[in-house]
Design goal:
This protein is mainly α. It is built from 15 helices and no strands. The chain is globular, with a radius of gyration of 23 Å.
Length: 332
């Protein structure tokens, strides 16, 4: 602002509204309500019904997984903060959300030390080494899960989900996607919708994942473009595979309701730190995740692909941001 502008403002007659001009660096629009604590609280609220369903299905095994991952993630946050000479930020609930999502992504039969190792890797390698909250490139919970899945393949593979000796009905058979991939058999869609199937602790109920995800989108804690891109991409590719096979429409619904698709689409892929910031970029990001999920499910040896798809697209998020920069006003 120059001196002439200031003089013009001073010359405005008394009683008339004077323009309030503040000069500051961007960003110029901010919402004081969108704090980290508020967003993490929304995620915890959305996860609560899923946690209740997991306890109903897997009994104390689910409680153990969630408790171990929650406690170890918070302990790791405090430990690494102390090692860096900083104050632990446990009150923002970000470590708690990471721990609960990690616990819900593990099989109920996994030993306690699997969750403990995954938690320290999630916070240490997935978050702290990049500088802490808001600076990590990859989703911390998926970093921890990927580490233990590769390191303890026999305890995290398809066979780990089938544990008839534990006396839990949900764990007497294969997961829906494993049964489809290995035996060509299909779990009843009704069971998959309500969540009365085997799987990771928190991925079984499609209904509760949808309810929690819609709540997050309404609260604007999660952006709708990412889950929309994932779901559309999966439905299109599963539909093409369905037309090429004898499933008569059921394959699409199995890929939509089965596995960690809906849990990952709403609770993992929408992490604001590791996803693009532009609306177009978010949709592209979601489409990419859905594409990779179906490629892994159809053509690899893994029955599930959400974790790998999210991590791969996390690595591409900075490029997607650059490719989808919106044009400034007046730009050709």
């Amino acid at each position: 602002m120059n001196e002439t502008s200031l003089e013009n403002i001073k010359d405005i007659p008394a009683g008339e509204d004077k323009p309030l001009i503040h000069v500051a660096p961007s960003p110029h629009i901010a919402s004081t309500s969108a704090t980290t604590t508020r967003m993490m609280a929304d995620v915890l609220i959305a996860l609560f019904p899923i946690m209740c369903m997991s306890v109903y299905l897997f009994k104390w095994h689910a409680v153990r997984q969630i408790a171990v991952c929650l406690g170890c993630c918070m302990a790791a946050e405090a430990l690494f903060a102390a090692m860096r000479g900083r104050r632990a930020t446990l009150a923002d609930c970000s470590a708690a959300v990471t721990g609960i999502i990690l616990g819900l992504s593990l099989p109920a039969s996994a030993p306690w030390y699997i969750g403990a190792i995954a938690s320290f890797v999630a916070i240490g390698i997935g978050k702290v080494v990049f500088g802490g909250l808001g600076m990590n490139i990859f989703n911390p919970a998926m970093v921890g899960r990927a580490f233990v899945m590769i390191s303890f393949a026999n305890l995290m593979g398809a066979s780990a989900y089938e544990q008839p000796g534990l006396g839990i009905d949900a764990m007497t058979g294969a997961t829906p996607l494993t049964a489809l991939k290995q035996a060509g058999s299909m779990v009843p869609l009704n069971d998959m919708f309500w969540g009365l199937t085997n799987g990771s602790v928190g991925e079984t109920s499609a209904l509760l994942c949808l309810i929690g995800g819609i709540y997050l989108c309404i609260r604007k804690t999660a952006c709708w473009e990412i889950p929309a891109g994932i779901i559309i991409s999966v439905l299109v590719l599963a539909g093409i595979a369905d037309l090429a096979g004898p499933c008569s429409g059921y394959l699409v619904l199995h890929h939509f309701l089965g596995g960690a698709l809906l849990f990952g689409a709403f609770f993992i892929a929408t992490d604001p730190v590791t996803s693009p910031v532009t609306p177009k970029g978010r949709f592209v990001f979601g489409v990419g995740i859905g594409f990779l999920v179906m490629i892994i499910r159809l053509f690899s040896g893994y029955p599930e692909g959400v974790m790998f798809a999210v991590l791969l697209m996390n690595a591409l998020a900075p490029l997607i941001n650059r490719w989808t920069i919106p044009k400034t006003l007046g730009e050709d």
